[in-house]
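User: Hi! I have a protein structure encoded as tokens and I'd like to know what sequence might fold into it. I'm fairly new to this, so please keep things simple.
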């Protein structure tokens, strides 16, 4: 199931009080993986919304991933956890979140991706490939890292960072398993955005 359009929430574009409705629209339209990324607030404060999102993802046969909250992911039985370079390391995160999917951000670093695979990561993510409105300080990396990763890794590869309907074809040419977006799904007409992005992606 680690394949397809991967939507990530955003505290501004998808505030918690609107998020369940926005998420359902995206899932109905064909988002295959949904990540809840919320860097403020305690696990207890966001637990209710995460439980609701997990239920929605199960209803639409999608995967629900929580960013950088291994204890919460374990507590609610989330499908997955995602960690970045500034988050908890993979090995301690796996001790807490023992059975679910764990993805690791690798930016443009193939060596980090190899280490993550060897340590038991279920997928790795590379990017940003274009300037990102949600992460404007992200360093840009060459798209060739995707095809290089596909050649040397056995786990799925995700592309992220500034991807839009206008440039997604440049990403699909390098064959990632998943394409991850924030604004390209959640800014504007969510259902139409998802339909356009999915039409541009290989099945």
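Assistant: Happy to help. Inverse folding works backwards from shape to sequence: for each of the 203 positions I chose a residue that suits the local structure. Here it is:
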């Amino acid at each position: 199931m680690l394949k397809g359009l991967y939507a990530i929430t955003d505290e501004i574009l998808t505030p918690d009080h609107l998020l369940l409705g926005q998420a359902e629209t995206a899932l109905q339209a064909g988002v295959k993986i949904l990540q809840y990324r919320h860097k403020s607030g305690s696990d207890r404060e966001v637990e209710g919304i995460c439980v609701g999102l997990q239920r929605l993802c199960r209803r639409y046969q999608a995967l629900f991933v929580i960013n950088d909250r291994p204890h919460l992911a374990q507590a609610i039985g989330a499908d997955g956890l995602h960690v970045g370079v500034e988050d908890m390391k993979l090995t301690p995160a796996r001790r807490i979140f023992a059975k679910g999917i764990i993805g690791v951000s690798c930016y443009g670093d193939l060596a980090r991706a190899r280490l993550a695979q060897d340590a038991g990561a279920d997928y790795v993510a590379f990017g940003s490939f274009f300037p990102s409105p949600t992460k404007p300080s992200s360093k840009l990396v060459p798209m060739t890292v995707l095809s290089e990763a596909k050649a040397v890794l056995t786990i799925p590869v995700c592309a992220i960072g500034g991807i839009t309907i206008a440039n997604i074809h440049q990403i699909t040419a390098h064959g990632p398993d998943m394409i991850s977006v924030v604004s390209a799904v959640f800014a504007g007409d969510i259902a139409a955005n998802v339909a356009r992005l999915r039409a541009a992606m290989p099945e």
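A useful reference point when you look it over: The chain is about 40% helix and 20% strand. Feel free to ask if any position seems puzzling.
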